[in-house]
Structures are given as C-alpha cells and as structure tokens.
Amino acid sequence: KNDKEGYEKFWKEHSRILKLGYSDFVNHDKYIELLRYNSSSCNDSNELISLADYVSRLKEDQKEIFYLSGPNREAILSDPHLEIIKKKGLEVLFMYDPIDEFIVSSIRKYKDYEFKSVLNVDLKKLEKIKDVEEESKKFDELSRDDEKHLSSLLSQMKLILGDKVVDVRLSKRLVDSAACLVSEGDEMSAAMQKILKMTNQNVGSQKRIMEVNQNHSLVRNLLKVYKTNVDDDFIKQVTNQLYESSLLQEGNLDDPHELVKRINKLLEQSSEWYCKVKNIS
After folding, report:
1. What is the structure's pLDDT at 163?
2. What CATH number has the domain bearing residue 228?
3. Does 138 fall in a domain?
4. DSSP run (H or E) holding 93
C-alpha cells in the first residue's frame, strides 16, 4: 500500500506462491487485497492493478467485476466475447495464470461485487450501461424477407452442426467478429474446461451455443448464397469453419486437421476468384 512499485515487483516474482492462499478462508479479507492483475485499462502487460483500483473505476449501474482468461494480453484482446465489453467501455481483469480461474471461483466476490467471466455476462444487465463506442461499419437494416431467410439459415446451420451445439442464434455481443461460442447460464468456462482437460479430468459434455453476427460481411454474403441456393455446399463449409475457428480461438479444438483442410480449399477457391477479378492470367 505504501510502496506500490516495490510490491508490484514482489508480486511479479512471487505471485504464483501468493495465489495459493486462496483457500485460506480465515485470512480471506487480507488475502484478497494482495491480488494484482493486468487489465484492459492498463497501458501494457506489465502494468498491474488491485481489486480496489478496479472497483474505484466502476461504471454507473455496474454491479460485477468482469474478468477473462487467456495465455497473454494479445490473445485476450482479440477474443470476440470482449467486443460488447469494449463497446460499453467496461474494464476487464486479464487472468493469464490457470490458477486464477480457481481463485475467482473460490473467493466469488470482492466487497459487494461478484466476479463475472466475460464469457457468461448477462446481456440484459449490460443494456443499462451506455455505449462508448459506435459500430465502425454500418449495415442496412434487413428487410422482413431477409429476416425470414436469415432465421431459416440459422436453422440450417444448426442442422449442419447437429449435436455439437445446442442452438445457433443471432448475437447481441459481437461487433467485429462473425461468430463465437457461448455457454448457457453459468456453466463451466472454456478456460476452466481446458484446464481440467489438461489434468485428464472428465469435464463431460458442455452445452454450447453458436452466436452469429448478422452485421458481419461474411454472414450477409452467406445470406445471399442461401437465398440463391439453400443447399449450396459453401454454407456447410462456412458453418463448420466458424464453429471450429471459435473452438480453436478458445483453445478447445481437439483435432485441427479438418479445419486446415477446409481453409486450404477456401484459399484455393478465393485465389481463383481473385485472379478473375484482377484479370490476372
């Protein structure tokens, strides 16, 4: 408290040992004040903040402490689930150490604010918080006919994926990405699932939903293809690619071979189209 720089240096050297104290419930209040994390408000990956720092910057109507796990700052900043949080201008704690997932599930809250993974945010609660960012690319509103076709397209995407997902639905959290996978309610996060898999623990089947961004160029073009030919193989390719890319991004794609094979095929097709558009012979 009195030597911020000194403590941050100490934390960086001994944080993994200090973090093991999360199960010391007797000294819970003292322990929680010792925690330090990088966050979306930090200038780089070296900067650290305390939970008290985070709470002091809460937005009006914000009742939760948001966090997101990942291997490094760059990976977390590119996570599609973060897009709605950025749009609202909310701060997110970045958790790089696998044990961090166990810490937040154990301590549950700081003062009156519960920890909430960005993966499981309540979108209705976020609606109360004003946007600080406008969408960079504007799309025309879909006509009623297009909305009906889009609904049918989502149903077909669900049929293509089968039991891999519970549902395919439109997203209210995506801004720049075409799709992402989300869990129902407060199910185990993708990061925790990955950790348990690494320790050979059976995590069972997780109910995942694929969300699709209707204001993304890929989805708009896919809709055009669907309206022309509902059985076009391109729809199947893109659906599987979006699903497996989402799994890959969260670190839970077990076998990347089909994904790589599909990417190579799409690249081959796009290279032919590119040569035609550019009149390259």
Report:
1. 94
2. 1.20.120.790
3. no
4. strand 92-95
